[in-house]
Fold this protein.
Amino acid sequence: MSKTVLAIESSCDETAAAVVRDGREVLSSVISSQVEEHKKYGGVVPEIASRRHCENICWVTEAALHKAALTLDAVDAVAVTYAPGLIGALLVGVGYAKGLAMAANKPLVPVHHLRGHVAANYIAHPELQPPFLCMIVSGGHSHIVEVQDYTRFKVLGRTRDDAAGEAFDKAARAMGFPYPGGVYIDKASRLGNPKAFRLPRPRVEGSPLDFSFSGLKTAVINTIHTASQRGEEIDKNDLAAAFQQTVCDIISEKLSLALDACPHDKLVLAGGVSANSGLRARLEEDCRRRGIRFFCPPLALCGDNAAMIGAQGYYELLNGNVADMSLNAVASKKIDID
């Protein structure tokens, strides 16, 4: 039976609402971004983010329902990101969703943010179904996950320190690029020589599928500081190209090991860093060589949005994963635990 889900996302600095039908069809998607406000601070300021969510969540949700030409009574469930993320930001979304669900007597569906990123691919690729291997790359997470079913996940590898997106932003700041830095490194890398700098590829001893990006980030910062102390000028395009290629090499190598250990005929890329052109091209080529299918979301669905939460919320609802009014926000939670 067809199900329509109203979804709310407020885990970081985007206040978003969407209406999604049957996990695949987006009837509306509205996002209020705070990027320009946080840019002057060089990163997200949690208290400011929470305040803006409080200011924006009502009109964003009303706009999503209006664009879908539906009333709250017409939807079948209310889904909301409850973990992980900035706790104050999450609490705004969770509290608002609880109020809507109670007022309209609708099921309340808690959605894990990273599961939502995976589900962005269901919207973009209607033919995609589990099982498959997924690389989730975002500002706070770098995970290799076996998606066994729509609500069953097995983590094969994860970062032990910085996530890839965090490393991108911190390296970009050291290079003098504005926030958010990943997109600027991506653009600069197309103009540079990736062989101009030799950067480390940190490994986690005893855990071949786990990531470590902290040492790579530090190497970029030290390279810049050393050149500055010597009065030398660094070609930022070359350093950006070397950094981006190194990140792509690391992820490509880990995924190759994961596919050897856990063979699948589909590889999915998800998360904010899935917008990186170098990473998309590298993994697409890796899949072509292996003879497996590669899936990634369009750029509009790479960042945080509520459409992906509605998509995953549909499958959580079908699985009976609903919450009562005791639902709380959780700052950190594993993707493979309900």
